[in-house]
Amino acid sequence: MQDGGPGAARERGRREFADLGIVLRTHKLGESDKILRILTREHGKRSAVAKGVRKTSSRFGARLEPLTCSRLLLHRGRGMDTVKQAEIQTSFQEVRADLDLFVNAAAMCELVDAIAEEHEPHSELFDLLLKGLELLKSHPQRARFTRAFFEMRVLAAGGFAPMLDSCANCGAPLGDGEQLFSLHRGGFVCEGCLVKRQAEVGKLVRVSAGTAGMLSWMSGHQLGEWPDEPPGAELGEAEMLMDRILEHWTERRFRSHQVMKEMP
Ligand SMILES: [Zn+2]
What we know:
The protein is an alpha+beta fold. It is built from ten helices and eight strands. Helix 3 (99-115) packs antiparallel against helix 10 (255-262) and helix 8 (209-219) packs across helix 9. The longest helix has 17 residues, at 99-115. It is elongated and about 75 Å long.
């Protein structure tokens, strides 16, 4: 079969595919290449080599920087794909250039990287990440709220929406005041359960009524909607609880959470 004949074209068709992809992270490979971790919309999380990308003359230019959403042409390899073409859809340059926005975006990417299965399509997760990055770009002053909200929606998309409206242990209605979140049960628990069977509800995190209300609002709305009242002091507590829930859920510590704690 001659190169470029119908057989070769069919073979290429099997090995190559086009998809939208967001670069979650990159690391250097050799002198001039990079390995990219990409979340694609239809083909799941992939690892791909971008050859020559670190040369100043690279035809990829800035198209494969972290956070960039590009239309990609990928060639399937045995262990890893190879990037054949990349065309920027949204660069998120503004997000990369602002340290505060970038750490929030990095936290979103780190979470997605931790939970997305290799090569397992999860378009809902892709759409959430793209929306989250777009919100960081369009509403930079709401970055922290966006990240916490994103995390809540990711939990729900993963089938782990926290139980916030009734006791996660016995189903009883909850009072209006401050609440106790059971990491073990994945939701708020009532006073009764706390008194009777403390061992079963496991480790507890106490949050104010305001924080409980904000989390409840997030669990009932879509990313991109905004509460009538701008979030105030309860945001810090909500972020802290979301970090604890995610670390419990994924059984890992997130580098980005640590970075954020150390930021002024
Ligand atoms: Zn209960």
